[in-house]
Amino acid sequence: MPSAEGEEAILAILTGGDFFGELSILDGKPRSATAIAMEATTTYTIDRLDLLKALRAEPEMAMEILGTLSERLRRTNLLVEEAFFLDVRSRLARQLLDWAQTHGVETDQGVRIDVRMTQHDLASAIGATRESVNRHLGQLQDRGLISIAGHHIHLLDLDGLRRLTP
């Protein structure tokens, strides 16, 4: 989601089978965010009227979309709560733990977050500056909680990271 000043906030990282643009297709209003592919991606579009017709004919499809919308709203509520009540280190630890669950791959070195992330991307995801994220990542490395190899972060001590979050 871009700001007027040209900054951006990363609201979610989607993977195969996920959908986006549902708010606009359901209410007919302009998009509230953009999507940027992080790797080669195939996307499909559906016409608003065709989707609405399908939702009327298939209530289970409507329930699946409502379930996903509810999950996304809860995640957004959590982001607002964290921005108001947590410091950068706690938000960073929570984000890393969250991505470990959704995008983590077990390795000999711990859990690798299997998404290429820059420090700017990570800062955009937690509402912080790149410099602050850089400093906190260094501290987490110094404490042996994470390691960084290229654009991948390995979580070495999940319990240690959890202790940093209230």
Describe this structure in words.
It contains seven helices and four strands. The protein has 166 residues and is α+β, with helices and mostly antiparallel strands. The chain is elongated. It folds into two domains: 62 residues, no CATH class; 77 residues, Winged helix-like DNA-binding domain superfamily/Winged helix DNA-binding domain (Arc Repressor Mutant, subunit A, Orthogonal Bundle), CATH 1.10.10.10. The longest helix is centred in the middle third of the chain and has 27 residues.
Put the structure in a nutshell.
The chain has helices spanning 22-27, 48-57, 59-85, 88-103, 119-126, 130-142, 158-163; strands at 104-107, 110-113, 146-149, 152-155. It is an alpha+beta fold and 166 residues long.
Task: Tell me the layout of helices and strands.
Layout: H1 22-27, H2 48-57, H3 59-85, H4 88-103, E1 104-107, E2 110-113, H5 119-126, H6 130-142, E3 146-149, E4 152-155, H7 158-163
Antiparallel strand pairs: 1-2, 2-4, 3-4
Helix pairs in contact: 2-3, 4-5, 5-6
